[in-house]
Amino acid sequence: MAGGPRSPAREVRGAHSILCMTTVPDRARVRLPGISSRAYEHPADRSALVALRKLTGFDALFRRLASLFSDRSLRLVFLASSVRASQEQFPQLYQLLLDGSSILDLPEVPELFISQDPIPNAMTLGSDKPFIVVTTGLVDLLDVEEMRFVIGHELGHVLSGHAVYRTMLYNLTELAKRLVWFAIGYLSIRAFVLALEEWYRKSELSCDRAGVLVGQDPAAGRRALMKIAGGSRMSELSHDEFLRQAEEYDAVADVRESIIKVLQVLGTTHPFGVVRYVELDRWISEGDYEAILEGDYPRRDDDADASVREEVKSAAQSYQDSWSRSADPLMGMVKSFTETAAGAGGKLFDGLFGRPPGNGGTGSSEPED
Q1: How far is the C-alpha of 150 from the C-alpha of 95, rounded, in Å?
Q2: What is the pTM of this model?
Q3: Which of 119, 175, 214, 269 is the most buried (most CB within 10 A)?
Q4: Which of 238, 218, 216 is nearest to 226 (CA)?
Q5: In the chain, which ranges are continuous DSSP H helix?
Q6: Which of 79, 54, 26, 4 is nearest to 215 (CA)?
Q7: Would you give the distance in Å from CA 71 to the centre of its chain?
Q8: Which candidate, 30, 110, 115, places its Cα nearest to that of 80?
């Protein structure tokens, strides 16, 4: 929680009329009215989402088509085989859902299903009307505040629209695969899939931040990530030692281990536990979390004005900063390519979104660097 006095208007203290909350939260939490998902999104995640949102109308059409078929099918599966949270079923989890939806000022509260599965997991499904699924393994593993973090994480996916764009890009990728019949085409599609997987991983980092914004208890977020990695016995776990694990994973002995690390993330959509932990810890310590709680964050009303070019530059800078911090020997070999990648990315999006590349194009009113 941020220090200093807060206006009661900015806090969740009791029932919220829109969300029909019926119990008082155990402590006050700051509401974030009108918050844009850009406030918590990792720069690499944010740049992709801003670009996709510029494809005006396409995402709306996709949502509508998804709602006619796949969304209905998915929801029916969980409606038939899982327990839907409500005031009568898993009321405590339902209250966490209402509280989190209020804090992020969601226009609609998504449904929450609890599915019988011993493996701890949570997911957000559906494009037009997203819903959340958590497994019994996760419910049994975490305490209330840790579950608040997890539900906040999933609400972050809802606000960002990750389910929409993930499904949209997945379908486009599958379509493209069917059209590939020569080697160069296959390599192009494979490169696109690798980029998509990297975006997935960064979107998970984004929503860890959303989870902390909802719970407003960074320690609970850290505990949840440690438990997901190593089980429920917090008395056997150490925050400092887990950070040392992360440092050791980052600073591997030589380039061979660096290459192994790269190969191990291929085909994955979630970062490893120590990576998520240290990235969340860094984001909190750098002050962005506190600034958002104090009201310094972008609003949804301004999303249409977001610059794709600036977000691409921000994403490139985030990678450069990450490489600069890293003690991984392989990272030292790729630092010099960052500025070239940023420039190429800017020119690509200039061409896609109306501003011709070159010096002083007239397709945009944005100032030159």
Answers
A1: 13
A2: 0.74
A3: 214
A4: 238
A5: 43-53, 58-68, 70-81, 91-103, 136-141, 144-160, 162-179, 183-215, 218-230, 239-250, 255-265, 273-285, 288-293, 308-325, 329-334, 338-352
A6: 26
A7: 21
A8: 115
Tell the burial category of 104 from Cβ atoms under 10 Å away from its Cβ (0-12, 13-18, 19+): buried
Cα separation of the two ends of the chain = 37
Dist CA 239 CA 355 (whole Å)? 48
Q: Is the pLDDT higher at 9 or at 83?
A: 83
With CA atoms as reference, report the closest residue to 210 among 292, 327, 87. 292
SS3 at position 254: coil
Q: Tell me what the mean pLDDT of segment 198-210 comes to.
A: 89
Residue with tokens 């536990």, as numbered in its chain:
273
Residue-level pLDDT at 180: 60
Tokens, residue 17: 């009329």
Q: Are 224 and 150 in contact (CB under 8 A)?
A: yes
- The Cα–Cα gap between 99 and 12 comes to 8
Question: What is the predicted pLDDT for the residue at 296?
Answer: 95
